[in-house]
Design goal:
Number of helices: 8
Shape: globular
Helix content: 25-40%
CATH class: Alpha Beta
Largest sheet: 9 strands, mixed
Structural class: alpha/beta
Number of domains: 1
Strand content: 15-25%
CATH superfamily: Acetylglutamate kinase-like
Distance between the termini: 23 Å
Order of helices and strands: EHEHHEEHEHEEEEHHEHE
Number of strands: 11
Strand order of the largest sheet: 4-3-5-2-1-6-10-11-9
């Protein structure tokens, strides 16, 4: 039995690269699709936001001389490419899914609205929410916080390549220790780079719990949905 009825799953664009240096690793994509299919089989309604960092990041593009607004727009389009790839992978294994976009681009995807997203979720479809917020200067972390609140999710699940939140970056500091649970205020005071401050503040102000876990290990999403404490809860 799943402990959540409706989730917003935030996936990292960088994680989609898998073993590659750029773009989409088909093996990782299919692993994600199979884990999401398991969540649907458990009766969970699944909304998804994917980053675009495996293709283009607006903020890093700005550092290389791109106009920030146009760079962020390129990043939004990168999230649409990733969303279409995941949509295709889900449909190929028989999962009903759709792509909604924050910017009008029919027939690539339907234009997003809260009502449309919830309607599709209630029908049992996986709803992939692409294009960020549709505005520059906002990250996909902020987009996922916004969408989680809008679709009235029980929790925002942040799938990363590490198994939770640590006192420091565990990939750089072997002495870093993991939190099983942490408050939003502790994230601020410790200056932990879980998400950007806008995203964290939105979740705090709207009482949206965040669960950070390792999505790259097959089977972990099902464990989280079953209530196993394998990551870090923020509330």
């Amino acid at each position: 039995m799943a402990i959540f009825k409706r989730i917003l799953l935030k996936l990292s664009g960088e994680s989609l690269m898998g073993e590659k240096q750029y773009g989409i690793d088909e093996k990782r994509l299919n692993e994600y699709a199979n884990q999401i299919a398991e969540a649907v089989e458990m009766g969970v309604q699944v909304g998804i936001v994917i980053g675009g960092g495996n293709i283009f990041r607006g903020i890093s593009g700005a550092a290389k001389g791109f106009d920030r607004v146009q760079g962020d727009q390129m990043g939004m389009l990168a999230t649409v490419i990733n969303s279409l790839a995941l949509n295709s992978a889900l449909q190929s294994i028989g999962v009903k899914s759709c792509v909604l976009t924050a910017i009008r681009m029919e027939p690539v995807g339907e234009f997003y609205s809260k009502q449309k997203a919830i309607q599709r979720l209630n029908k049992g479809e996986v709803v992939i929410l692409s294009g960020g917020t549709g505005n520059p200067f906002f990250t996909t972390d902020t987009a996922s916080s916004l969408r989680a609140i809008e679709i009235e999710a029980d929790v925002m699940l942040k799938g990363t390549r590490v198994d939770g939140i640590y006192t420091a970056d565990p990939e750089k500091d072997p002495a870093a220790t993991k939190f099983d649970e942490i408050t939003y205020d502790e994230i601020y005071s410790r200056n932990l780079k879980v998400m950007d401050l806008t995203a964290t503040t939105m979740c705090k102000e709207n009482n949206m719990p965040i669960y950070v876990f390792d999505m790259d290990t097959t089977g972990n999403l099902q464990k989280v949905l079953s209530g196993e404490k394998i990551g870090t809860l923020v509330r």
